[in-house]
Amino acid sequence: MIKEVTDQYNANEIEMKVHEFWEANNAYRAVREHRKGAKKFFFVDGPPYTTGHIHLGTAWNKIIKDSILRYMSMNDHDILDRAGWDMHGLPIEVKVEGALGFESKKDIEAYGVGNFIEKCKEFALRQKDDMTGQFRTLGAWLDWEDPYMTLKDEYIEAAWWTLKQAHEKDLLDTGKRVVNWCPRCETAIADAEVEYEDRDDPSIYIKFKLKDEENAFIVIWTTTPWTIPSNIAVAVHPEFEYARVKAFNTEGDSETLIMATELVENVLRIGRYADYEIIETMSGEDIAGLAYEHPLADLVPLQAEIEHKVYNADYVTAENTGCVHIAPGHGIDDFEVGVKNGLPIFCPVGSNGSYTDEAGKYTGMNIRDANRVVMDDLLEKGLLISEKTISHRYGHCWRCKTPIIYLATEQWFLKIGELKEAMLEEIKKVNWTPDWAGSARFKDWIEGARDWCISRQRYWGIPIPVWKCSKCAKIDVIGTREELVERSGADADIELHRPYVDKITMPCDCGGTMERVEDVFDVWFDSAVASWATLRFPHTKEQFDEWWPADFITEGHDQTRGWFYSQLGASMVAFGKAPYKNVLMHGFTLDGSGKKMSKSIGNVVQPAEVIEKFGADTLRAYVLASSAPWEDLKFNWDEIATIHRTNNILWNVYRFPLPYMALDKFDPQEVSYESVEAHLRSEDKWILSRMQSVIADVNKAMEERLLHKAMRAVNEFVLEDLSRWYIQLIRPRTWTEANDPDKLAVYRVLYDVFVTTAKVIAPFMPHLAEEMYQNLVRNVDENAPATIHLCDWPTVNEALVDTDLEAHMKAVRSMVESSSNARQKVGRKLRWPVSRIVVSPTDENTVAAVEQLRYVLMDQTNAKYIELIEIGESWNELGVEAAPNPGAIGPVFKGDAGKVNAAIASMDAMELKKGLADGEMEIPLADGTNVTITEKMVNFSETLPEAVASAEFAGGVVFVDANLTREIESEGYSREVIRRIQDMRKELDLDVDDSIKAHIQIDDEGVLDLVLDFENYIAKEVRANVLVIGLDVDTTGELAKDWNVEGISMHIAISKEE
RNA sequence: GGGCCCGUAGCUUAGCUAGGUGGAGCGUUCGGCUGAUAACCGAAAGGUCCUGAGUUCGAAUCUCAGCGGGCCCA
Fold first, then answer.
1. CA A631 to C1' B19, whole Å
2. In a domain, A797, yes or no
3. For chain A, which terminal residue's Cβ has fewer other Cβ atoms within 10 angstroms, N or C?
């Protein structure tokens, strides 16, 4: 039996109950099982990093995923949806280091790598569990019990196998490259792991002495003096104009300087030169090849053996001096200039950020400390033109915030550059939402694709499965555990992490011994293989053959160059095709003012905080409805509260008929739709038609992944159609006491609309939907599916669609609104009936609407009669007013204009109107003469009869006739009385079917007389068995109150009748 | 500095693809309703459609330049 429900929408209570219910019934599993064998839908969860806590962004991410998966499931898809966790990498290492009080790699080595990774693993697993709980409170259904974890063997094998493919396809490379390097963590870090922040650094101008010219120098600028010992060359732009300048200092001494012509003025001012003279200008191409002396050649002996020259490079910009210091060991562009011109890659800096013994004088010095020393040395040699400090954006390690440096080191690479064209072809086949995410943003990114450095010099990661012979340097890449065991004879259940795999050696064909290279994978490589790792490939191949590639993935826009890219790269290497078919790129959650949420600013809003206040369904509805998925979401508490209010209204709508249904023991199993069909009123057919339209709207939105449109369509239906209209229309029908078919029709229609609405909100607000379903469906039919999420998505029932009716109802609603407006103008409240409403339509739809829905219009406007006039005709009770138009009269009648004006003003307006219908007429003036006037000379306006007000609406005008009659006054006052008594019943907290005694004293004889006309009506409406109304009545009772009704004082007392 | 996206009422937004008098919700004020009632309805006030230029008879919409915000890159 359908039960009554609580007064208020109590989200937390509902959600807790629903979670317990899902748990107890294993609902998630049942739903996935139920769709086995249906059309496959392979979803790959972008693995969040196991930080231990979710934030609004990750919550939004999972909410989108969950909504789409639930929708797909209800639409009969067999869903594969293992949740994923990204568990390796530097962030966890740094956390564990912090917990153990470590400061450098030495501490880890001393503690023991085995112990260290054990801690990392424990830490990651614990954080994963915490986060799983948090995601579950959102109602997100993924396979939480069998998630993929990057630290698992099955996952590690997927990474290994992929690298082996790269090796076999000759896409794996090793060699010196310049990488972002964190001197504290002593490892290469990914571009994505570099965080840019403002930092103060030296800004120095230096001159390098030219070799073959006395007293002549080329001028460069840098913010990293510590890279000067590594300087190998100077780059100039081939097409810029450079100048040879004779510069004079304040003492009048001169020297020759070379720099870009347009920058001369600036540089010399900064260098405090007194005067200058441009000797000659030349192109950058001309000065290429100039040789210069390394400024610190005497302090860094190796530099003395290297030849230093000027080279051309296109990336040089016309800033500072236009001549760029090149240290191929310390910059990506520098490295490229070096490689292109066959220069030595000189990198005298070690992994911990201190100079190696190649650095001569600077050996052992930390590079940051060396800045000062280098500048002093340059100053002493007279080569430092200027020294200042600037604040600029500089890269920092995202974990430990140490300023990064660029180092040329030995690393492993995937030759992604070679796959660029194929990648660009592949992404065209992918369906992107929004379109530009793929066609513009991702495409641009891929066009700049470079080789991918996949190696890291750390501990907690997937070990790179490359074994190298110490004798012949041959390498072998191992693809699976099986292969490893086979080749090395290692234990079959060996732990695949460091340090255990490090100890494994294997024989080389040359007779030497192969040892694993020490590096681990970049964590981006971990998640890159997710789409096949989640299918346990290569461990088992069946699932892969059945499911891969992914039907759908969705992540934030930062993942364009992150996971969307890394997956594509890895997949191109492994399979030569894109690993996904549909991608939805979603936005970021920002704070209320559009700023990034960050701990340091303190503007972070926790999902748990929102859930505690409003519940998960409200959070879900909010993030889904508030903006297009790909747009950033400015978090706003007021908006959340508004959405919550919408949900509360849905709850109220749903709750409204339940007491009546319960009282009447309404059983939807007994009262079929067919049995009431003949008794449906227009509004019933209308709400059923609207319901179908909503299903169609949601379908269309979901097809295009426009979740905001889906959610908004539902909200609008609930608010506008159900709550503000349908429920208002049918309220009196639910109060009928007899078991008449008109009431049963309402019950049945409400029932169907509620059940359908529950299904339509199920993907978005799964808890509330479940709550409604359990009561409405499961309580009456124990054979119904156990949970709403097992149900099929509702299909549009074309037989119920009536677009004409929808248009008519829309017109009626606007007429009702306009009549409210008119009532307000004429000062007549809705409680008082009006004798009639006159509708002057401008279109057929309005006419049809009034004809079809006249009773709805009468009801809702509280009018005794609706008068409909013909299209285009004006209401014949309107008066006409005529006013002379001086602008037209003056020029024609000149001096007589005043008389003409007066004549027009004094004439009967109707007569004028008729006379001027033909364009002109003759009128008499006061002096007895006649003149001819034209229609332009008179302005006509319509006037309203007494106590009538009008208001326009889209399909015409309504006139509200508020003239009083005795009957209307009687009814008006009676309803005032009824209202007061109902209010008092409420105050006494009486049940709807309790009877009362009521005593009413009215201090105005006239009004008393009016009210007495409706005595019986009043008694019936307020359920009074005893009703005494008079001038002098004893008004004592359980509750007695004095009222002022339109200036008349009344005293009312009521008591419950036992 | 570059790429992509966003900028419309105090707040959240629709309209922009396809140029033709800018719509809604929240909030505010006033009024109304009343057995969904701590709910609900109507009206009013509130707009340099980020700025500037251009195209056009006509620009929130198209183009260009700038400003502010986001993501990414340098």
1. 25
2. no
3. C
